[in-house]
Structures are given as C-alpha cells and as structure tokens.
TrEMBL record:
Membrane-topology annotation of the record: Multi-pass membrane protein
GO biological process terms on file: ATP synthesis coupled electron transport
UniProt subcellular location: Mitochondrion inner membrane; Mitochondrion membrane
Major subcellular site: mitochondrion
Transmembrane segments: 6-22, 29-49, 61-82
Name used for this protein in its record: NADH-ubiquinone oxidoreductase chain 4L
C-alpha cells in the first residue's frame, strides 16, 4: 500500500470512526460525513490522475456535486432542528416526537 493510499484510507476510516463513536451533536456528525466525502473525492481524483484516462475524469466532479448537495441538506436539517428543538444534541431528537 502506497503512502497516499494509506493517507486516504486512514482519513476515511477516521471519519467513519468519528461518526460511529462520537454522536453527541448533529454538527459533529455532519463534519465527519463531510470529511469522509472529501477523502473520497481526493482519492478518486488521484486515481483518475494515475490512470491518465479521460473516461473517469468526470467522476470526481459528480462526487463533489453530491457532496455539496449532502452538505446543504445537512445544514438545512441542522437549522430546522435547532429552531424546533433549541439544540443540536442527538440525544434530544426522537422520531416518535414529530
């Protein structure tokens, strides 16, 4: 495994571990998701540069567009949650209290 592959794999796994183990605030969960998407974007960009092929050059931009949509939807949910519940703590949120 090359050092670049190790760096991207460890960045993704750290984001996944942060999402799995540190679930106190919605904002921290969104930041972990954003870190995971950023590591995937950089890894996919490096992969397409290593292949030197134009067939896969659009894939990082599509992933970046999906990442931006995910971030905007997550921030919209964060604002809506903060307005209705007064906090972004995940323990206060329940699907039974609509």
């Amino acid at each position: 495994m090359t050092p670049t592959h190790f760096a991207f794999s460890s960045a993704f796994l750290l984001g996944l571990a942060g999402l799995a183990f540190n679930r106190t605030h919605l904002l921290s969960a969104l930041l972990c998701l954003e870190g995971m998407m950023l590591s995937l974007f950089i890894a996919l960009s490096v992969w397409t540069l290593q292949l030197s092929s134009m067939n896969f050059s659009v894939a990082p931009m599509i992933l970046l567009a999906f990442s931006a949509c995910e971030a905007s939807a997550g921030l919209g949910l964060l604002v809506a949650t903060a307005r209705t519940h007064g906090t972004d703590r995940l323990k206060n949120l329940s699907l039974l209290q609509c």
